[in-house]
Design goal:
This protein is 37% helix and 23% strand. The chain is α/β, with parallel strands linked by helices. Strand 8 and strand 9 form a beta hairpin. Helix 1 packs parallel to helix 12 (318-334) and helix 2 (43-60) runs parallel beside helix 4. The protein is elongated and about 80 Å long. The mean pLDDT is 94.
Amino acid sequence: MRRNRKVKIIATLGPASATSEQIEKLFLAGADIFRINMSHTSHELLRQYHGIIRKIEARIGRPICILADLQGPKLRIGTFAEKEVTLNAGDIFVLDSDATPGNATRVCLPHPEIFAAVKIGDHLLLNDGRIRVEVTDVAEGRIATRVIYGGALSARKGVNLPDTIIPLAALTPKDRADLDAAAELGVDWIALSFVQRSADVAEARKLIAGRAGVMAKIEKPSALTHLEAILELSDGIMIARGDLGVELPLEQVPGRQKQITRAARKAGRPVVVATQMLESMIHEPVPTRAEVSDVATAVFEGADAVMLSAESAAGAWPEKAVETMDKIAQEVERDPHYPGIIHAQRTDPEPTSADAISAAARQVAETLKLAAMVCYTSSGSTGLRAARERPEFPIIVLTPNPATSRRLSLVWGLHCVLTPDATDVDDMVSKACRISREEGFAQPGDRVIISAGVPFGTPGTTNMLRIAYVGD
């Protein structure tokens, strides 16, 4: 089965989508990747989800990608003596290391690393940014602040520090255990939360040791400062607009989304746009017009994938949310302005034979109006290069490696097929033409362009293009 769009859809699993029947419905509705949020998932439930998805994959005969999303360090305040307190603008509010339940003037902050990092003039955001305070004094085990925006505050609410680089490792002990469990199972991507610098990605990459793709979540302003270095070490990027929208002024988030998307495409890394895309569909059967425009913007911008979170994990309409996202994406990609917008972002190929081959294949196929491009790949790098070109025609990826076919299922425009590698040039052409026809991308008499590497079966040797006619 083939999708009628190039952007991919990620659906998060949860109570509303936990059974084999529900997960298969989401796949048939348009989900290409399933996200497992390790903040709410035990290792036993992770194994159950993995087993269900792999059985569906075998039954349907299409590679399905699995993304495990690590929780990352959670910064939270302590408890209050009352159910909640109210902070008013201008109040002095103290965060300290005293574990005694707090009140309207103070509360415990059980994170000593924050006391060491914060400076006078820094801002702290409480309760998902609803309350903003400014640091007026710092002493050992005590931070005095002045309330800028007040509101109700209750126990265990989150703390964000947009102005402060906190000396915290991106991987907690829980994350390390979750990472190892997910990698051992064979998930395809592992998303790393709370990335502040490239060293965070390097640590995760060392632990994953090639067992999965490493996806860095951009949700901290400090990550934007180090974006180029983070891209260099990551296999993919997720724009986690939830925390990013808390720590940055909201009006900056759309521009930052474009900046990250274009930087990722230039680097040849897949990029996911996530958080609150169809948020109202948690409760309602239709999205708002603004949400439709939000999804459309990400598709017009050339994102590799758009993601549903609570909409599919805990919402009342998980299947309908996927169907809605699928319809929006298809409509955008049919828009007459879409090709021009996508092509305007194209970057020059890197000075390598593989990049030059991919760029040439796109140009030849568009000039000759070919039916499809067929890429033979073992490691997946040829497929990534072909996708970076964002061609108007379909890209079929042929690989003998199940892990490669699943991992590339997240990438823009790639239709992955698991098949033995070619044995010679005649076999290469015959197999490419047959699969193009069987998968519904070409008809007898159409032409396709094929990229491959000689000698066959050797990773990193893409060095050949061939135009071939599709027979009966």
